[in-house]
């Protein structure tokens, strides 16, 4: 989808994102498996648009249209991460109220999201301008954007892709696994999600604080990796203790929860850092395309991790049964 954005218009694809995700949410109300599958496919397409095209549109407007200083991209992305966290906290609380307290069920957050997507579509439609991208690669755009990753003189583009794929594959694996990991505590999931978003806000605030004291984005990215590594080690250790000492499940699950919070702080530092580095390293005419190429190995790593986890759990159950 990044190739479509760079060739035919990033603003157009951002508008399509809002409408397609609204449709994806509506499919959740269907009991038909094929409809649900279509909804998931649309959701996957929209996720790719979200994590590539919006940022590409902004960076172009910032650098090419208004010619603002590049240093401001750092600050803008940090603020965007912070306010995304604010909105996500609100969304988590509203979802929890609708789904659990008001007992509208797990479908209600998806239905609440539909008008939000429609508002986003109309704001983008009437308030955004299209990026003016002049490319000479119209006939073979996909190959040209892939070539830009592997060119020797652009090895930093490849390194950035490896870094992003590794970190975000862990992040998406975490998205799938935190719910079953915290199941022994039976927490309100909307409130837990809001806590995670609060930690992302804290991470982005730490990023802004250190950035104002002349820390480089590269150094802050390394710091986010270190925090994430510590959090993963702590959570893995806590989960291991749960299996060894089931009588203390609640205590060690709580330790894992605090490790998850630390991980989200790392994520809050990671997003503005990696976004700024993308804005500096990825060629403008391929910005959305390359961002989506990065997501292919990330999705592969995530799928392999989840398959390995599923097989491990299945093997453990068979062993226990025997």
TrEMBL record:
GO biological process terms held by the UniProt record: monoatomic ion transport
Gene Ontology terms: cellular component: plasma membrane
Principal subcellular localization: membrane
Any Pfam family matching the protein: MFS_5
Keyword Signal annotated: no
Origin: domain of life: Eukaryota
Topology versus the membrane: Multi-pass membrane protein
Statement: the UniProt record of this protein carries the keyword Transit peptide: no
Recorded GO MF terms: molybdate ion transmembrane transporter activity
TM segment ranges: 12-31, 37-59, 80-98, 110-128, 157-179, 191-212, 224-246, 252-271, 292-309
SUPFAM superfamilies linked: MFS general substrate transporter
Cell compartments where the protein resides: Cell membrane
Keywords: Cell membrane, Ion transport, Membrane, Transmembrane, Transmembrane helix, Transport
Function: Mediates high-affinity intracellular uptake of the rare oligo-element molybdenum.
PANTHER family reported in the protein's UniProt record: MOLYBDATE-ANION TRANSPORTER, SAM (S-ADENOSYL METHIONINE) TRANSPORTER
Record protein name field: Molybdate-anion transporter
Lineage, top ranks: Eukaryota, Metazoa, Ecdysozoa, Arthropoda, Hexapoda
